[in-house]
Amino acid sequence: MTDVTGVPVDVLHTLFRSEQGGHEQVVLCQDRASGLKAVIAIHSTALGPALGGTRFYPYASEEDAVADALNLSRGMSYKNALAGLDHGGGKAVIIGDPEQIKTERLLLAYGRFVASLGGRYVTACDVGTYVADMDVVARECRWTTGRSPENGGAGDSSVLTAYGVFQGMRASAQHRWGDPSLRDRTVGIAGVGKVGHHLVEHLLQDGAHVVVTDVREQAVRAITDRHPQVAAVADNDALIRTEGLDIYSPCALGGALNDESVPVLTAAVVCGAANNQLAHPGVEKDLSDRGILYAPDYVVNAGGVIQVADELRGFDFERCRAKAAKIFDTTLGIFARAKADGIPPAAAADRLAEHRMALAREAGSR
């Protein structure tokens, strides 16, 4: 069911374009009293209730917001499938600057919309939303994860997201250089926010050299003040051109790998936490043609969703950490499948995820 009342024609075109991924349900939410405008996209429930976070972002247009929700929810289906979770993929976006319009009233209204789906979609944190926000949403919606420990949740999921990305990097190093250690490798991290700053810690502990950048100067300063050995560059363009870079790690918003960045990328490996790193289909082949190993984003950044899924059954950190550690083996398996089939790793990951979802659909139709 899609509520299309008052939606511009260009947004409707975005909703129903077949290449967006064949979503089961898209809900457009509006609460005039609180100023809420949101999109909830459910891509698949073949494996179970759709699970994915809520992004709060000042989109340039409603069409951009819908497109992001569609892309992100599709990515969650694939991420949850390869993480071995019994969840489909969903994602929500709230339109607006969270620094300007986020209020308790708005979050409660959003919670009521999620609750109206009756458990088909389970929400959590994402860009622009935090544990405290999920505590508010949960007051209106029991299908809310990423809550604080005081409110029955697991707290910050970025800790395990970073740990999973680190495991993906180790697997990438094993496949590329025959050794999972990152000692003396130079890793460039674009975005040192929720996940990126935890990733810096793992890399330094493993003996890596780290270079960072972020659109927020204070985020970079927080890292370099804590770790003077970490270098900083002005922007992402400078980072991807850095000589001697072994691994490029996009950990901010998506689309970092595009027609402009891939030709000048100096790194031999790409492995990061950002969702939807490939700007469009075909970029994965461009990376492969240049001999750059790409660790599919939705594979390596699954640590956070592993945590929030576990919250639904009674959170146990060590159980989640052990499951997130398996991202190492999953990533290696994808590289092996890609080599055997003669395809880029992103295509191999898609095939494996689609196979698991197809088996679930077949079983459900019997």
Automatic annotation (TrEMBL):
Where does the UniProt entry say this protein principally localizes?
cytoplasm
Q: Which InterPro entries match?
A: Aminoacid_DH-like_N_sf (IPR046346), Glu/Leu/Phe/Val/Trp_DH (IPR006095), Glu/Leu/Phe/Val/Trp_DH_C (IPR006096), Glu/Leu/Phe/Val/Trp_DH_dimer (IPR006097), Glu/Leu/Phe/Val_DH_AS (IPR033524), Glu/Phe/Leu/Val/Trp_DH_bac/arc (IPR016211), NAD(P)-bd_dom_sf (IPR036291)
| Catalytic activity from the UniProt record | L-valine + NAD(+) + H2O = 3-methyl-2-oxobutanoate + NH4(+) + NADH + H(+)
Q: Which residues form the Glutamate/phenylalanine/leucine/valine/L-tryptophan dehydrogenase C-terminal domain?
A: 155-364
Q: Which UniProt keywords apply?
A: Branched-chain amino acid catabolism, NAD, Oxidoreductase
Q: Any idea where this protein resides? A: Cytoplasm
| Pfam families cross-referenced by the UniProt entry | ELFV_dehydrog, ELFV_dehydrog_N
UniProt-listed PROSITE patterns: GLFV_DEHYDROGENASE
UniProt xrefs under SMART domains = ELFV_dehydrog (SM00839)
Give the record's pathway: Amino-acid degradation; L-valine degradation
Subunit structure, interactors included: Homodimer.
Q: What name does the UniProt record give this protein? A: Valine dehydrogenase
